[in-house]
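Q: Predict the assembly, please.
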Amino acid sequence: MTVPRWVTRVLALGAVAFGAAAAIDGLWVMGPTAEQGDYSRLLVVHPPVATLAYVGFGITALASVLYLVPRTRRREWDLLAGASAEVGLVFCGLTLITGSIWGRPVWGVWWTWDARLTAEALLFALFLGYLALRRIPAAEHVRARRSAVAAIIATLDIPIDHYATSWWQTLHQGSSIDLLQPDKHLDTAHNVGLALGFVALTLAFAWLLVHRYRVEKLEARYEDEGLAAALADRQAEGRVEVPV
Amino acid sequence: MWRDAALVAGKDLRIEARSRVATNQVAPFAMLVLVLFAFALDPNRGALKQAAGGLYWVAVLFSALLAVQRSAGIEAGDRDQLRMSGLDPAGVFLGKAGAVAAQLLALEVLLALGVVVLYDARIASVALVVAACLLATVGLAAAGTLYATLSAGVKVRDTLLPLLLLPVAAPVLLAATEAWQAALAGHPGDGTEWLEILGAFAAVYVAFGVVGYGALMEEA
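A: Predicted assembly structure:
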């Protein structure tokens, strides 16, 4: 499972290009909305990062299951799970931050114990724990199996969390996105901005994921070959150089 | 599977009974948490009585951390022996979780007495309280046993386990607290939907433990 280098270049260029288009649309083309004024411009960023955080954790869960099933067990699945959880955590953190920035002027508070916010914060804590578990030194297959089980435990918690917290009174607005009737909630500039934001951030997500996965692979190789290389170096030091 | 579970549960409970750590340290710790809450929240203002359900479950959660850590610590050094014993992994899981659940239930009875005596809480609907305790305990014991086994034998397990388990147990804390508040307020009808969540949590983690514990046992 190696991704050719040109793919990451295309991903990066695409992310920059669509990001620039989204920024132009979000900052100049979109008008302020009647209810939320300028703050509705955060629509370009907040829904995409929130969705991609879920995508990241979803990939982690899927890769963990594939690792645990003996027939599909490959070290790559474990590496992918770790890389995806890390990128997902960054997007989850961005979701909380952008939501907070938006909540302060519109709701009047940085944070509120709303169902969605609480569930998102718990999700952040769950995968923070997962990454902490991954950092613990252990034999490679032991760590991989432990983290795969931990990822599944954390993922199983998400729907329960969701139902538990959604029985609270919720303050977070409902979805503004309606694929069948795009103009129901949003005007064209907002829809375009949202779409551009989704494309740009998805490309950025994929770019980060591929790079993180490469680093994971290099780290794994370093772990495997590091000791052998260190031994070879030490032995080479002791060898007497014979001038020819 | 059930015979193996009974064997493992009996073994764990016997070890606990002989070491007396649960009765001499964990139970007093739980009561101490209740007393500390009273210091933190002025008992004269009625805050304790209002928050009794939540404080009770926080105390249970902290004690559960200790209980599952001890339960996993029994085999930390020689997990190979448990693997070599030929016991069914699902049975081992059910046994260990069952032993933890039994200890937690005993602790919950004690803490409930503490809440009634110290916080002046009146339990209006005993049936709802008992149901919430049973379901929450099964869920906590199952999820706790899984995570404790994960972090057993790791140097940093004392700090890792709370980080892993507390967010997972958050829905239990929420649902059990809401069910208790309904029971304390005398509106048992409000508590039934929270019981469903507790039941779902328990079912999910017991099922996953039965299926997945083997993967944890074959490691190392």
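Residues 139 and 200 of chain B are 9 Å apart (CA to CA). Chain B is about 85% helix and 0% strand.
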